[in-house]
Write a structure and sequence with these properties.
heterodimer; A: alpha+beta; 4 domains; B: outer membrane lipoprotein receptor (LolB), chain A; 13-stranded antiparallel beta sheet; 4 helices; 13 strands; globular; transmembrane (chain A)
Chain lengths: 770, 263
């Protein structure tokens, strides 16, 4: 294999280069088929039970995806002529929102009133000409006493209101993303217009469509800021490390080709891009640099030592072929175990990065040497010393091993035991950083108006018109009251309120009759009358199914945490099971889907991580040809993740989807350090040296390479941590930390540990394959 | 979904280009066609029919409503109709009376047997769904020329049938539509297909009329109308199971008092 590559890449450099470029272009062409999916649904596989419940609920009761325009006058209350005029006008204009199916606001709330013997159903504010101080006062009184409005479309104090636009978007992924952008553009324009006309009014945009569009916008931002920044950082590092124009250019070429072909293959295979996969280029770039640095610095080192260029290239290839392969393979395995995840974008992230890593490996042993061959290459004049710093460090390390081992062990154990203090938490809106407008808007709404999370609860009676039965209505009423008494509940939208209001209307607005109708046919006929009186877009289809066997309640929660959400769902289910066992319950919502996915995904990723440990350690043992060293390496390979998550528990404590894959990924990456260190160590031991001398040898020969590659990796992942999308930034930050910790473990713990456990024994003389 | 979108785009582009060339001549022609349609349907007197509405949601679940309708042609004004609900059981006997008017808002009353009272329904609901179906009232009330402005778009042949395509713009602010496009056959001026565009100008629904039957040798009635909502994926089929034009109905059978007696 090595010979084959040597023959091709080195003897026929031009052919190799031209062929590779052609192949790259063909492969990369596939990238034109990539499209971005800005949709929270990408996080859920088709088989996800919560997604299925949610979709079935949407198919029965219409889709409920929305944009909310939160309106807050800075001075006065919403109940002034000026503000009501604003809300009325904006409500009218909001009907023009693309794909909108209904618009709900305080002004178009369908108020029912008994006038003489007639039931008058009309918007709370029908014409702005009607506005007068008396009318304003009347609207205020009605709105602030209407349970379907208070804490949802109007705050209790009447200072903040919301216009809620419900949209029906396509089920086609590509189309839906474009539609979201269209909707958001329209609503933003609308707000901008009113912002100009009405001074002293604050506007905030929230809702599922805003979140979906946020995924798209943040990914775009990452791709247009972080990616170029990473390119610049990589070039800078290469210039400093290699100090050779040709080698730097060759590395950049390898990086660009790796990325282009990875994305191309992704396109050909029908992948789509998401907030998670949009950063695959950065990760591939980060990982690809190391391969070329190893190859390139080998060539330059050989040339400085007097070798002819072509021989220097061949020698470097021979020396680095195996280590580069092993480290790439372990990294790829780490990423491939993402396939255990329940979250499609994480699987995609793992697969695409694995493809990129393998490509980078292949290109760095084919194109890269060929490129070096055909272009002039001058090694930098600076002669490298004998790494006096690493030398001194090795001596210091050996001298201080007496306390280094207990102290580093204590640190490892001390932080690792903190790991369980992390808790799984996935909240879609909290994936966005606090400086993203979307997040700020959502926080404003949560603070002043109503919670961000809605949970829909459908009660299926199993018989047509079952909803109208007095027994069911009683249960619905007591369930609604129970819901309202729950501490995390801000608002309950329930049909029980409508029945009570109608019953009162039918009895000349007598408050004594604000209760449920007692006969089924009476309830049914009230409802029919009401339904017949509602205008376009404000019907009851979002609460009742076709044959009125099922009703849907919408509950707004101000508590978003995964644990709390799941606990709430459990309480709802057990209440209903206890008091209303015969009703068929479904509970669904976007927030709930995210609340469950964290747990589901973590369970499956634990298996992924276990497999990563087994496979990577196995590969390591094969590579080192030493089971004992392989077992010893488990500690420096696993401890960094343990410490990292322990530190995370102190620093943040919330583990989201992005972090669930960090252990597998880091294992694949940090194992490289151990491979390099241990193989040099073993090399020295086999040469008859004792543990102390072997440690010294390992430090001197790979110490610098280790911290240099670590620096590159940290730079790449730290850049990722600058993303405003927390799934990516948390992943980047923790990975960077773990990689840094891994180096510390390899430098401070591993040598002392080896000198303790590997005392005195002699190694069999085995021909070193390295 | 994509094909719908493309179709919608094409329809939108077409209508933009067509309305751009709307002039007095095409408007006159549109009006003349609509007038023909109206004139072909004059003199039927009164009718009694038994109907079914089959509602379907996006998942294909169905629900059936049974109703009977008595209708009376009113010369010089909109028709009067009385609809009695037979199913679902808990609204059985509920009766719905409408006076449609050429000028001004229609009038509507509902008799609720459980309450034994007649309630007037405000008329700004004409855009709302009829009994939870995909039909709005305004899709079901009698066709009156004064409620629209017309424009002839084109003539075309579909499946060998020559058709006029006319656009109608509702004049009432309470209408839920910005425009309604109807395909009528050139021979009998029967509407075969209607597209409804919502307030933002997007295609909302399509009605397809089929199973046309000739009554009293003169009056064509579609015995089946399929209404599909493109935005929600729901649909409703309205089927006439039987219809008779030989009734003894008079104005007296369409009053609030007769509403209470209706069974």
């Amino acid at each position: 294999m090595e010979k084959l590559i040597e023959n091709w890449a080195l003897r026929r450099s031009w052919v190799t280069l031209i062929l590779s470029v052609l192949l790259t272009v063909v492969a990369a062409w596939g990238a034109s088929q990539l499209y971005f999916r800005g949709d929270y649904k990408v996080f859920f596989g088709a088989e996800n039970p919560q997604l299925r419940d949610f979709e079935s609920m949407q198919a029965t009761f219409n889709k409920s995806d929305n944009v909310g325009i939160v309106i807050a006058p800075k001075q006065d209350s919403v109940f002034s002529e000026r503000m009501l005029e604003l809300v009325w006008r904006m409500t009218e204009d909001a009907w023009q929102t693309p794909y909108s199916s209904r618009v709900d606001s305080v002004t178009n709330f369908q108020f029912t009133e008994a006038i003489d013997d007639d039931l008058l159903v009309a918007p709370l504010l029908e014409f702005t000409e009607d506005l007068s101080p008396e009318k304003v006062e009347k609207i205020r009184t009605i709105a602030l006493h209407e349970p379907s409005l208070v804490n949802k479309l109007i705050s209790e104090d009447g200072r903040v209101t919301m216009i809620n636009i419900t949209v029906q978007q396509s089920d086609d992924d590509q189309l839906k993303t474009a539609q979201s952008a269209e909707i958001v553009t329209f609503v933003r324009d609308l707000v901008a217009r009113y912002d100009l006309q009405y001074a002293g009014v604050e506007f905030h945009l929230t809702g599922v469509v805003m979140v979906n569009n946020g995924f798209f916008e943040e990914a775009n931002k990452d791709a247009s800021t972080l990616l170029p920044a990473m390119f610049i950082a990589v070039i800078l590092m290469l210039v400093i490390l290699l100090r050779s124009f040709t080698a730097t250019t060759g590395t950049v070429l390898v990086i660009i080709m790796s990325i282009a072909v990875t994305l191309g293959i992704a396109g050909w295979l029908g992948y789509y891009l998401s907030t998670a996969t949009v950063n695959v280029p950065i990760i591939v770039m980060t990982l690809a640099v190391a391969d070329c640095v190893h190859m390139g610095s080998g060539v330059l080192f050989n040339m400085r030592n007097g070798m002819h260029k072509n021989d220097a290239i061949a020698a470097s290839l021979a020396l680095n072929f195996k280590p580069i392969f092993i480290t790439s393979a372990t990294t790829a395995i780490g990423f491939l175990t993402f396939n255990f995840s329940d979250v499609p974008p994480l699987r995609d992230l793992g697969n695409l990065t694995a493809i990129g890593v393998i490509l980078a490996w292949w290109l760095s042993i084919t194109i890269f040497p060929a490129f070096l061959r055909v272009l002039p290459l001058n090694p930098p004049a600076v002669a490298e010393g004998k790494q006096p710093m690493m030398n001194r460090f090795a001596e210091w390390n050996i001298r201080n091993r007496g306390w280094l081992l207990p102290v580093s062990s204590a640190v490892i154990v001390g932080f690792t035991v903190l790991m369980p203090f992390n808790s799984i938490n996935d909240v879609a809106i909290e994936y966005f950083d606090e400086d993203v407008a979307l997040r700020q808007d959502a926080d404003f709404m949560q603070q002043y108006l109503t919670g961000f999370t809605t949970v829909d609860i459908a009660l299926e009676t199993g018989e047509a018109s079952g909803v109208n039965s007095p027994l069911f209505l009683q249960k619905l009423e007591s369930f609604s009251s129970w819901l309202r008494a729950q501490p995390e509940v801000d608002h309950v939208f329930t049909l029980a309120d409508v029945y009570k209001r109608l019953n009162r209307n039918m009895h000349n607005d007598d408050n004594d009759f604000y209760r449920l109708p007692k006969e089924q046919d009476l309830a049914a006929q009230y409802l029919l009358l009401y339904e017949m009186s509602l205008p376009y877009g404000l019907d009851l289809n979002n609460q009742l199914n076709l044959n009125k066997s099922a009703v849907k309640l919408s509950v707004t929660l101000h508590e978003n945490g995964s644990k709390e959400m799941v606990a709430f769902e459990q309480r709802v289910r057990s209440w209903l099971a206890r008091y209303y066992p015969e009703v068929n319950v479904s509970v669904a919502g976007v927030g709930l889907m995210f609340a469950h996915i964290g747990e589901r995904n973590m369970t499956s990723m634990l298996w992924g991580t276990a497999w990563a440990i087994v496979m990577i350690s196995g590969l390591l043992m094969i590579a080192l040809k030493d089971v004992r060293l392989g077992l010893i390496s488990l500690i420096p390979n696993l401890a960094p993740a343990g410490i990292g998550f322990g530190v995370w528990a102190v620093y943040n404590g919330n583990v989201n989807l992005g972090l669930s894959v960090v252990t597998s990924m880091c294992l694949g990456i940090v194992v490289d350090d151990t491979v390099h260190f241990l193989s040099k160590y073993k090399h020295a031991r086999q040469a008859g040296k004792d543990a102390e001398q072997a440690v010294r040898y390992a430090f001197i020969s790979v110490g610098k390479a280790l911290w240099v590659t670590t620096l590159v990796l940290i730079t790449g992942f730290m850049l990722l941590s600058l993303s405003d999308f927390n799934l990516n930034s948390d992943l980047g930050l923790l990975t960077a930390a773990i990689i840094a910790i891994a180096l510390l473990v390899d430098f401070f713990f591993l040598p002392a540990f080896l000198m303790l456990v590997d005392k005195g024994e002699t190694y069999q003389e085995v021909k070193d394959a390295n | 979904m994509r094909t719908n979108w493309v179709r919608f785009l094409m329809a939108a582009c077409l209508s933009v280009s067509v309305s751009a060339i709307a002039d007095d001549a095409t408007q006159q022609k549109g009006f003349d066609i609509a007038k023909q349609r109206k004139e072909r349907d004059v003199g039927w007197g009164s009718s009694e029919s038994s109907n079914r509405m089959i509602l379907r949601d996006a998942q294909g679940n169905e629900s059936v409503r049974q109703l009977r309708t008595q209708a009376l042609e009113v010369q010089g004004d909109g028709d009067k109709s009385l609809t009695i609900f037979d199913q679902p059981a808990d609204v059985k006997g509920t009766a719905f009376l409408t006076y449609s008017h050429v000028d001004g808002a229609d009038e509507q009353w509902l008799f609720m047997p459980a309450l034994k009272r007649v309630k007037r329904i405000s008329s700004n609901n004409k855009s709302g769904p009829f009994m939870g179906s995909e039909f709005a009232y305004e899709d079901l009330t009698s066709f009156e020329l004064d409620k629209f402005r017309f424009n002839w778009l084109r003539d075309e042949t579909v499946n060998g049938v020559a058709l006029h395509v006319i656009e109608a713009t509702p004049t009432d602010r309470y209408s839920g539509y910005t425009k309604v496009i109807t395909w009528l056959d050139t021979e009998a001026f029967r509407p075969l297909k209607t597209e409804y565009y919502d307030r933002k100008g997007a295609l909302l629904k399509t009605a397809t009329m089929s199973d046309y039957q000739l009554h009293k040798d003169k009056y064509w009635r579609p015995h089946r109308i399929d209404m599909v909502n493109h935005q929600t994926g729901k649909s409703t089929t309205l089927a006439i199971d039987s219809i008779s034009f030989d009734t003894n109905l008079s104005v007296d059978d369409f009053t609030q008092n007769s509403l209470k007696r209706a069974r």
